[in-house]
Amino acid sequence: MSKQNLVYYLTFEDIQNRNILYNSIYMNEKTNYYISEDFSENFYIYLAYYGFICTSTSLQNKFYLLAEMQFEYAILDFKDLHISKKIAQLIKKDEFTFSINTKFEEVINKLEEYHKTNWVEDKYKNLLLSLKDYKTSNIDFKIISVELSDKNTNELIAGEIGYKIGSTYTSLTGFSSKEKKYNKYLLKINVIISSKAS
Questions:
Q1: Which residues fall in a coiled-coil region (predicted)?
Q2: Kind and range of the H or E element at 96?
Protein backbone atom coordinates (compact mmCIF):
# COMPACT_ATOMS: atom_id res chain seq x y z
CA MET A 1 0.00 0.00 0.00
CA SER A 2 1.29 3.44 -0.81
CA LYS A 3 0.11 6.60 0.92
CA GLN A 4 -1.59 9.07 -1.43
CA ASN A 5 -3.48 12.27 -0.49
CA LEU A 6 -4.28 11.31 3.13
CA VAL A 7 -5.84 8.04 2.03
CA TYR A 8 -4.14 4.80 1.14
CA TYR A 9 -4.06 3.37 -2.34
CA LEU A 10 -5.45 -0.16 -2.18
CA THR A 11 -5.07 -3.07 -4.60
CA PHE A 12 -6.71 -6.48 -4.89
CA GLU A 13 -3.40 -8.01 -3.83
CA ASP A 14 -3.39 -5.87 -0.66
CA ILE A 15 -6.71 -7.21 0.61
CA GLN A 16 -5.71 -10.79 -0.21
CA ASN A 17 -2.60 -10.39 1.93
CA ARG A 18 -3.68 -11.36 5.48
CA ASN A 19 -0.86 -9.37 7.07
CA ILE A 20 -1.89 -6.15 5.32
CA LEU A 21 -5.62 -6.79 5.82
CA TYR A 22 -5.43 -7.62 9.52
CA ASN A 23 -2.46 -5.60 10.75
CA SER A 24 -2.52 -2.51 8.52
CA ILE A 25 -6.23 -2.12 7.79
CA TYR A 26 -8.34 -3.78 10.50
CA MET A 27 -6.05 -2.60 13.30
CA ASN A 28 -5.77 0.95 11.96
CA GLU A 29 -7.94 3.20 14.12
CA LYS A 30 -6.92 6.46 12.44
CA THR A 31 -7.27 5.93 8.70
CA ASN A 32 -10.30 4.23 7.22
CA TYR A 33 -10.46 5.46 3.62
CA TYR A 34 -8.74 3.71 0.73
CA ILE A 35 -8.82 4.50 -2.98
CA SER A 36 -8.35 2.34 -6.02
CA GLU A 37 -8.63 2.55 -9.78
CA ASP A 38 -9.80 -1.07 -9.87
CA PHE A 39 -13.52 -1.14 -10.71
CA SER A 40 -13.62 -4.89 -11.36
CA GLU A 41 -16.50 -6.98 -10.07
CA ASN A 42 -14.23 -9.37 -8.14
CA PHE A 43 -12.38 -6.59 -6.35
CA TYR A 44 -15.66 -4.92 -5.32
CA ILE A 45 -17.13 -8.20 -4.07
CA TYR A 46 -14.02 -9.06 -2.07
CA LEU A 47 -13.93 -5.55 -0.60
CA ALA A 48 -17.54 -6.01 0.54
CA TYR A 49 -16.75 -9.49 1.88
CA TYR A 50 -13.85 -8.13 3.95
CA GLY A 51 -16.06 -5.37 5.42
CA PHE A 52 -15.42 -2.34 3.24
CA ILE A 53 -18.30 -0.17 2.06
CA CYS A 54 -17.50 1.33 -1.33
CA THR A 55 -18.57 4.57 -2.93
CA SER A 56 -16.61 6.68 -5.40
CA THR A 57 -14.79 9.98 -5.45
CA SER A 58 -12.81 12.31 -7.67
CA LEU A 59 -9.40 13.46 -6.48
CA GLN A 60 -7.19 15.74 -8.55
CA ASN A 61 -9.41 15.21 -11.61
CA LYS A 62 -9.19 11.42 -11.36
CA PHE A 63 -12.09 9.07 -10.56
CA TYR A 64 -11.56 6.41 -7.87
CA LEU A 65 -13.36 3.66 -6.08
CA LEU A 66 -13.48 4.83 -2.45
CA ALA A 67 -13.43 1.93 0.01
CA GLU A 68 -14.24 2.73 3.62
CA MET A 69 -13.50 0.50 6.57
CA GLN A 70 -15.97 2.07 8.96
CA PHE A 71 -14.97 2.37 12.59
CA GLU A 72 -18.51 1.55 13.71
CA TYR A 73 -21.39 -0.29 12.09
CA ALA A 74 -25.10 -0.29 12.86
CA ILE A 75 -26.80 -3.65 12.88
CA LEU A 76 -30.55 -4.15 12.66
CA ASP A 77 -31.66 -7.62 13.71
CA PHE A 78 -34.91 -8.14 11.83
CA LYS A 79 -36.35 -10.61 14.34
CA ASP A 80 -36.44 -7.68 16.79
CA LEU A 81 -37.80 -5.19 14.24
CA HIS A 82 -40.71 -3.13 15.54
CA ILE A 83 -43.20 -1.94 12.93
CA SER A 84 -45.00 1.19 14.12
CA LYS A 85 -48.79 1.52 13.86
CA LYS A 86 -48.42 4.21 11.18
CA ILE A 87 -46.25 1.95 9.01
CA ALA A 88 -48.59 -1.02 9.55
CA GLN A 89 -51.58 1.14 8.54
CA LEU A 90 -49.73 2.37 5.47
CA ILE A 91 -48.96 -1.21 4.45
CA LYS A 92 -52.60 -2.24 5.03
CA LYS A 93 -53.82 0.52 2.70
CA ASP A 94 -52.37 -1.58 -0.10
CA GLU A 95 -51.45 1.48 -2.20
CA PHE A 96 -47.92 0.32 -2.96
CA THR A 97 -46.18 -2.54 -4.69
CA PHE A 98 -42.92 -3.81 -3.27
CA SER A 99 -40.42 -5.54 -5.49
CA ILE A 100 -36.82 -6.65 -5.50
CA ASN A 101 -34.54 -6.40 -8.55
CA THR A 102 -37.33 -5.75 -11.04
CA LYS A 103 -36.52 -2.05 -11.64
CA PHE A 104 -32.78 -2.11 -10.98
CA GLU A 105 -31.72 0.31 -13.72
CA GLU A 106 -34.64 2.62 -13.00
CA VAL A 107 -33.61 2.85 -9.33
CA ILE A 108 -30.07 3.79 -10.39
CA ASN A 109 -31.40 6.42 -12.82
CA LYS A 110 -33.74 7.84 -10.15
CA LEU A 111 -30.79 8.15 -7.77
CA GLU A 112 -29.19 10.51 -10.28
CA GLU A 113 -32.46 12.40 -10.70
CA TYR A 114 -33.10 12.88 -6.97
CA HIS A 115 -29.51 13.35 -5.85
CA LYS A 116 -27.93 15.69 -8.39
CA THR A 117 -24.54 15.32 -6.72
CA ASN A 118 -23.90 11.71 -5.82
CA TRP A 119 -21.27 9.01 -6.05
CA VAL A 120 -23.23 6.60 -8.28
CA GLU A 121 -21.71 7.83 -11.52
CA ASP A 122 -19.33 6.87 -14.29
CA LYS A 123 -17.41 3.67 -13.61
CA TYR A 124 -19.21 3.06 -10.31
CA LYS A 125 -22.62 3.13 -12.00
CA ASN A 126 -21.36 0.74 -14.68
CA LEU A 127 -19.94 -1.51 -11.97
CA LEU A 128 -23.31 -1.71 -10.20
CA LEU A 129 -25.04 -2.54 -13.47
CA SER A 130 -22.52 -5.28 -14.25
CA LEU A 131 -22.86 -6.74 -10.73
CA LYS A 132 -26.58 -7.37 -11.23
CA ASP A 133 -25.96 -10.54 -13.21
CA TYR A 134 -22.42 -11.28 -12.02
CA LYS A 135 -21.77 -14.55 -10.22
CA THR A 136 -18.74 -15.56 -8.21
CA SER A 137 -18.21 -19.10 -7.02
CA ASN A 138 -16.38 -18.18 -3.82
CA ILE A 139 -18.69 -15.64 -2.14
CA ASP A 140 -22.48 -15.59 -1.78
CA PHE A 141 -22.83 -11.99 -3.03
CA LYS A 142 -25.87 -10.42 -4.66
CA ILE A 143 -26.48 -6.78 -5.60
CA ILE A 144 -30.05 -5.78 -4.82
CA SER A 145 -32.49 -3.03 -5.65
CA VAL A 146 -35.51 -2.66 -3.40
CA GLU A 147 -38.37 -0.85 -5.10
CA LEU A 148 -41.55 0.80 -3.87
CA SER A 149 -44.04 1.67 -6.62
CA ASP A 150 -47.47 3.25 -6.73
CA LYS A 151 -49.88 0.34 -7.20
CA ASN A 152 -52.16 2.26 -9.58
CA THR A 153 -49.60 3.94 -11.83
CA ASN A 154 -46.60 1.59 -11.36
CA GLU A 155 -44.50 4.75 -10.82
CA LEU A 156 -41.32 4.10 -8.87
CA ILE A 157 -41.58 6.35 -5.81
CA ALA A 158 -38.79 5.02 -3.59
CA GLY A 159 -35.84 2.74 -4.06
CA GLU A 160 -32.65 1.53 -2.55
CA ILE A 161 -29.49 -0.16 -3.78
CA GLY A 162 -27.58 -2.50 -1.52
CA TYR A 163 -26.08 -5.96 -1.45
CA LYS A 164 -26.21 -9.12 0.57
CA ILE A 165 -23.39 -11.40 1.51
CA GLY A 166 -24.73 -14.60 3.00
CA SER A 167 -27.59 -13.46 5.22
CA THR A 168 -26.26 -9.93 5.84
CA TYR A 169 -27.74 -7.02 3.88
CA THR A 170 -25.82 -3.75 3.46
CA SER A 171 -27.64 -0.63 2.30
CA LEU A 172 -25.64 1.64 -0.02
CA THR A 173 -27.99 4.45 -1.04
CA GLY A 174 -31.59 5.20 -1.82
CA PHE A 175 -34.11 7.83 -2.83
CA SER A 176 -37.66 8.76 -1.99
CA SER A 177 -40.00 10.84 -4.11
CA LYS A 178 -40.52 14.22 -2.51
CA GLU A 179 -43.92 14.66 -4.18
CA LYS A 180 -45.68 11.80 -2.41
CA LYS A 181 -47.63 12.43 0.78
CA TYR A 182 -46.16 9.39 2.53
CA ASN A 183 -42.58 10.43 1.85
CA LYS A 184 -41.30 10.12 5.43
CA TYR A 185 -42.45 6.51 5.69
CA LEU A 186 -41.24 5.19 2.36
CA LEU A 187 -37.66 4.39 3.31
CA LYS A 188 -38.78 2.89 6.61
CA ILE A 189 -40.92 0.51 4.59
CA ASN A 190 -37.92 -0.18 2.35
CA VAL A 191 -35.96 -1.29 5.41
CA ILE A 192 -38.67 -3.85 6.12
CA ILE A 193 -38.61 -5.05 2.54
CA SER A 194 -34.81 -5.12 2.53
CA SER A 195 -34.97 -7.67 5.32
CA LYS A 196 -36.61 -10.05 2.88
CA ALA A 197 -34.05 -9.43 0.12
CA SER A 198 -32.59 -12.84 -0.53
A1: none
A2: strand 96-100
